[in-house]
Design brief:
Blueprint (H helix, E strand, L loop, with lengths): L11 H22 L3 H11 L5 H6 L7 H40 L17 H15 L3 E2 L5 E3 H4 L18 E2 L5 E3 L5 H9 L4 E10 L11 E11 L4 H16 L5 E5 L5 E10 L16 E10 L1 H6 L8 E8 H9 L12 H4 L5
Parallel strand pairs: 1-5
Antiparallel strand pairs: 2-4, 3-4, 5-6, 6-10, 7-8, 8-9, 9-10
Helix pairs in contact: 1-4
The protein binds adenosine-5'-[phenylalaninyl-phosphate].
The site of adenosine-5'-[phenylalaninyl-phosphate] has 24 residues, from strand 6, strand 8, strand 9, strand 10 and helix 10.
Length: 356
């Protein structure tokens, strides 16, 4: 029957409109059923994309009369706009639901570390703690002293008179306050120890020191020392050497070659420079030992009677020895670090080589 109807009489316009409405119904059902953003994208591709059913059906418009084209075209636009806004509304709904779902299952802990990377103590701190253990074991008390010191404690009571040329041996960083400086050595703690401890005593005082110096591979303006002092009766250079050797061999876990040279410090008499053979190059010479094969590590000596007197101790009864360990250089020797400036460089690649 239909075959006999001429094409012009087939109700094409109605059919296209009907199809549009049908597509709209299907599309709305599909939209309600889209459960997540992926399903929503697939829906958009099916209905509204260039290859979607709405576009496909509109290809039939070309066969319609101008009036029909206009009315069907308008209907098609209305359907497209309705579906587009339904699509956006559903998208918002689904996004919000997904966010709500995540908020339910995820918690945010502001105090949780962002990475599993753990820090560790600075190599200088590690060695300081190691020295403290070692000397505690040898009966030494660990003392702390201030980094900002008086001229009196840093120089005066250590037998440096006001115009003593030895003051120039240590380039001093002065504060704005007269007579107050950044300690140039930990020897200032010797003075404090004599004021607070009753002899006999043995102390170790590690800490930072400051000097107004040009820096190079083995000199920094801020560096670490550890002061040692032992006060008793009838102590001798033999006791000093014994303590130094015991300490150095346990620290380096091997026999180290040492040499003693006479050294001058106003607060010791006699005074010595204890050098160790360079452990970085083993002797032939490198920047750390200034190509000499030896590293000046440990000045030491017997405490000068004037220093004992200034500390309130009777030199007829008490005597003792003192030493000043260059802690930064000790760490360099142990690990073969060729430049002291690495310590304060803040370079993590350097520091990470010394996990605790
Ligand atoms: C002193 O500071 C004396 N107070 C040491 C002392 C103590 C002598 C007790 C006798 C008795 P000296 O200036 O030489 O001495 O420094 C001691 C050590 O500190 C040196 O051997 C060296 O290892 C270290 N040192 C000194 N200056 C610097 C610097 N600018 N950078 C790094 N280390 C340094």
């Amino acid at each position: 029957m239909l075959d006999s109807v001429p094409p012009a009489q087939i109700p094409i316009v109605m059919s296209l409109s009907e199809q549009l409405k049908k597509i709209e119904v299907n599309a709305r059902n599909g939209l309600a059923g889209a459960a997540d953003l992926a399903a929503l994208d697939a829906w958009h591709a099916d209905y509204l994309s260039k290859k979607g059913s709405l576009t496909e059906i509109l290809k039939g418009l070309k066969d319609l009369s101008p009036d029909e084209k206009r009315s069907t075209g308008a209907l098609a636009n209305t359907v497209r706009e309705a579906l587009e806004s339904a699509f956006l509304a559903r998208k918002r709904e689904i996004s919000q639901a997904e966010i709500n779902e995540r908020l339910k299952s995820e918690t945010y802990d502001a105090l949780r570390p962002r990475s599993s990377h753990r820090g560790h103590l600075h190599p200088l701190t590690q060695i300081t703690e190691e020295l403290e253990d070692l000397f505690s074991f040898m009966g030494f008390t660990i003392l702390d002293g201030p980094e900002v010191e008086t001229d009196e404690n840093n120089f005066g009571k250590l037998n440096f008179s006001d115009d003593h040329p030895a003051r120039d041996m240590q380039d001093t960083i002065w504060t704005a306050q007269e007579g107050v400086l950044l300690r140039t050595h930990t020897s200032s703690v010797q003075v404090r120890a004599m004021q607070i401890l009753k002899p006999p005593f043995r102390i170790l005082a590690p800490g930072r020191c400051f000097r107004y110096e040009e820096t190079d591979a083995s000199h920094e303006n801020t560096f670490n020392q550890a002061e040692g002092m032992m006060i008793g009766e009838n102590l001798s250079v033999a006791n000093l050497i014994h303590v130094m050797k015991t300490f150095l061999s346990s620290f380096f876990e091997r026999e180290v070659t040492v040499r003693l040279r006479p050294g001058y410090f106003p607060f010791v008499e006699p005074g010595f420079e204890l050098d160790i053979q360079c452990l970085v190059c083993g002797g032939p010479g490198c920047p750390v030992c200034k190509h000499s094969g030896w590293v000046e590590l440990l000045p030491c000596g017997m405490v000068h009677p004037n220093v004992l007197r200034q500390g309130g101790l009777n030199p007829e009864k008490w005597n003792g020895f003192a030493f000043g360990l260059g802690l930064s250089r000790l760490v360099m020797m142990r690990y073969g670090i060729e430049d002291i400036r690495h310590f304060m460089s803040g370079n993590l690649r350097f520091l990470e080589q010394f996990p605790a």
